[in-house]
Amino acid sequence: MDEISQLNLLPTHTTERSRLAQKILDMALSFSYYNLFERVSETCSTQAEQFFAHQRHLIRRQLEKNNPISFTYIGFPAKSPNRDKTISHLPDMAEFLALSRLNHLTESVQSIYPPGAKVVICQDGHVFNDILQIPDQQVDDYVHALQAICHENQLTGISFTQLGQYFPKANNYEEQRAQFIRSSPMMLEDIRQSIRHKTMENMLFKGIHRLMYEDLIGLEPDHSRTYHRNQAKDLALSVMHRYIAWEYFIHHQFPDAVHFSPHPLSIEFSRIGLQLVPSHDSWATPWHHAAILDGSAYSLVKYKSAVKKNTILKQSSQGYAYFELIG
User: Fold this and answer.
1) 93-112 and 136-152 are packed helices; what angle lies between their axes, rounded to 10 degrees?
2) Is the separation of the CB atoms in 266 and 207 below 8 Å?
3) Hey, which of 53, 193, 221, 305 has its CA 20 to 30 A from 257?
4) Tens digits of per-residue pLDDT, 127-144?
5) By the 8 A CB rule, do 143 and 123 touch?
6) Cα atoms found within 13 Å of the Cα of residue 32, Cβ hemisphere only
């Protein structure tokens, strides 16, 4: 399409921009595999209405400038070290499917708005990997492999940003984390109090606690379940503290962006929850799972569950590992 044709498709009137903003927002919401609107109905309707009005406003501001629509997605930290859940520390078919879906969103926006859209993945691995005892090198390996997936498959709507880009004077990852924590207005005690007194924060804590508990069971099988639950509480509190601080930080780095999250509690945190690969569990993410092919459809599965089924571990033509259900 030539430049003159593109310009003719750009919205010129306020009403047209408002309609297009709603259409782009609806498109973004449709890319999640869980029903966000069921969760909206559980919240204050006024709050939900204000949230979506703000998202439309952010999109409309980009339309007024004829800029690509800016999206951020916090996630893709590192593969879970629990091999009961994941195949290895590197991305596999699960990540490929998720990245492809994000890129498809940018292409879909471009089909109705020629400047298109861009998704910046705000990779949070180095934000809290020390808490999870995941080596920095494994985080780097994971991110480099994600970037390779995007390059090899021409997923040009996606780019990445990481903690180190904002703290260039730090000599190592430990210093990056220390400078980030010092720069954050979020205090650990504030998070602890919000968990006690706010429903959504409590639900987010419970979700993170469950993930930490599952990882500890796989990593330290000799300890009791009670020990794991108690340990997971401390880990979840620390991870949640840094996660919310990173969200706050990214909001200020990308003030005009529509912000996505892998978690299903995002309206209360000013983010739209997107589950990028189908799963029966709304908290499931590619970095805590593998992918399984059943007929022609992929979904997320834990490694341990997959091997108990009639499956074989295969590789795609691009080299991405996945399970295939046989019979």
Assistant:
1) 50
2) no
3) 193
4) 999 999 899 999 999 999
5) yes
6) 27
* Per-residue pLDDT reduced to its tens digit, 140-169: 999 999 999 999 999 999 999 999 999 999
**Dihedral pair phi/psi, residue 158, rounded to 5°:** -115, 135
- Distance, in Å, from the CA atom of 145 to the CA atom of 150, rounded to the nearest integer, reads 9
Give the residue ranges of DSSP H helices in the chain. 3-9, 14-29, 36-40, 45-64, 93-112, 125-128, 136-152, 173-183, 188-197, 199-219, 225-253, 303-308
* Cα gap 280→299, rounded to integer Å: 9
Assign 269 a pLDDT band (cuts: 50, 70, 90): low
Cα separation, 69 vs 61, whole angstroms? 9
- The rounded distance, in Å, linking the Cα atoms of 161 and 159 is 7
Sheet containing strand 290-294, strands side by side: 297-301, 290-294, 321-325, 311-315
Number of neighbouring beta carbons within 10 Å of residue 42: 11
**How far is the C-alpha of 129 from the C-alpha of 78, rounded, in Å?**
8
Q: What pTM value is reported for the model? A: 0.90
Would you call 84 helix, strand, or coil by DSSP? coil
Tokens of 153: 């498959």
Give CA–CA dist 128/246, Å, rounded: 10
Q: Compute how many other C-beta atoms are within 10 angstroms of the C-beta atom of residue 45.
A: 9
Tell me which residue of 250, 278, 268 sits closest to 204, measured CA to CA: 268
C-alpha to C-alpha distance for 233 and 277, rounded to whole angstroms: 27
- Tally the C-alpha atoms within 13 A of residue 194's C-alpha that lie toward its C-beta: 17
CA gap 49, 71 in Å, rounded: 20
Question: What is the mean pLDDT of the segment spanning 165-183?
Answer: 96
Residue 55: closest CA among 275, 273, 264, 284: 273
DSSP state string for 21-38: HHHHHHHHHTT-SS-HHH
- Residue spans of the domains in the chain: they are 3-185+251-320
